[in-house]
Amino acid sequence: MVLNPEKLTYYERKYERNPLEDITKFLSNKWTLHILRDLFLGKSHFNEFKVNRPSLDNKALSRCLKTMQDNDLIYKINDGDDPKNTQYFLTKKGQSLNKVFYELLLFALDNDVDNEYYSDYAKKELKEMYKEILKIK
């Protein structure tokens, strides 16, 4: 299907917003996708999101987590007075990104440069593993 630019312009005028632009703008934050991935993989504490990310400072991480909360992708639970006990979890809305992440995984595996990095067996194994992790039916 070829997209008719005139039709797109009509819809942009009609709705004054482009939902694809909205979501790409939100997800283009440098750390959002990394944190979402970490949450899907079971990380939940502030410092866990910083592991192997030396350029992610506390201020940037706090800002990103706050934006994700404001957009109802995550929620936090404070367990007591110690901020180290604060945990973050995906909301139902955040969990609904599981299919997007799975499609990104498929794209990455299917477009492996020269098909050299992952064997066919590894690709199959990764697809199955992430299907389970992301709760893909």
UniProtKB/TrEMBL annotation:
One Gene Ontology term of the molecular function aspect: DNA binding
Lyase in keyword set: no
Pfam family, one: HxlR
Highest taxon of the lineage: Archaea
Keyword Glycoprotein: no
HTH hxlR-type domain location: 18-116
Alphabetized PROSITE patterns for the sequence: HTH_HXLR (PS51118)
Residues that span the membrane, as ranges: none
InterPro entries: HTH_HxlR, WH-like_DNA-bd_sf, WH_DNA-bd_sf
Keywords: DNA-binding, Transcription, Transcription regulation
Protein name per the record: Helix-turn-helix transcriptional regulator
